[in-house]
Amino acid sequence: MEHLLEQTLNGLQLGFVYALIAVGYTMVYGIIKLINFAHGDVFMVGAFLAYFGFTSWGLPWPVAVLVSMAGCAVLGVGIERLAYRPLRARGAPRIAALITAIGVSLFIEYFTSLNFVFGSDYRNVPRVLPDRRWELGGITVTNVQLLVLVTVLVLVASLQFVVYRTRVGKAMRAVAQDTDAARLMGIDVDRIIACTFALGSALAAVAGALFAVAYPQIHPFMGIMPGLKAFTAAVLGGIGSIPGALLGALVMGQVEVLTAAYVTTDFRDAIAFALLILVLLLRPTGLLGKTAPEKV
């Protein structure tokens, strides 16, 4: 039982990291119905910026994370402005935006792997926190696990506040509901979309920094699988729903860790994606998704 509880705690840690990435997917999809496949690579850039801020620039780890958030927010806005906005302005079909997203993802991965950028080598992240462990009822809890859980809960709660209690959040919800009507009501739709990309990218940067602390090895292609799994989590929970993204990510984290612990590590990815297929067969809108008419 103690082993099961410890693996459940490990699943929570992994699931909460996925949650911050999944929230970015679900926010962008909710606004412009686009799957931003470059989001996993923003997560990777966030991990590297925090790493270099801490090791090369001599910044305290919290300051390095803030620098990473700012850098990824700028990157997210740049991706939206240069890659996606021209397609929207020309009324391009969604498949064109999807192909562009895959192209942007590949460009970021291979550009950052160049020697004069991040390089293709694996980098070991130094310890940023002293090793602290507590025994609670036979379960070992580490300060890294507490850091991940508390940070993600605070950020998701803050995001909910922004979305439902601020003018920018109200504008986001208006654009998500009807872009043309929002524009007629005086909302600067392009600015709101840029804000959405910036906010989602900043959260992905925090996810990258937390991932680097919890699993201290980073490389330019590290965002591929976490990005795919976070997208799967967003769909599993009901894409377009922030609580759904959180729930889906927690389910994905638990399934992956428990499969690796009690079945085999070879099948942990297969079973996680098979779960998505099963849920979508039984509930196509996801766990917390709502049926809505398709917008033309």
From TrEMBL:
Domain of life, source organism: Bacteria
Keyword Cell division found: no
Protein name: Branched-chain amino acid ABC transporter permease
Family named by the database record: Belongs to the binding-protein-dependent transport system permease family. LivHM subfamily.
InterPro entries assigned to the protein according to its UniProt record, in alphabetical order: ABC_BtuC-like, ABC_transp_permease, BCAA_transport_permease
Gene3D superfamilies: ABC transporter involved in vitamin B12 uptake, BtuC (1.10.3470.10)
Segments crossing the lipid bilayer: 12-32, 39-57, 63-83, 95-118, 138-163, 192-215, 270-289
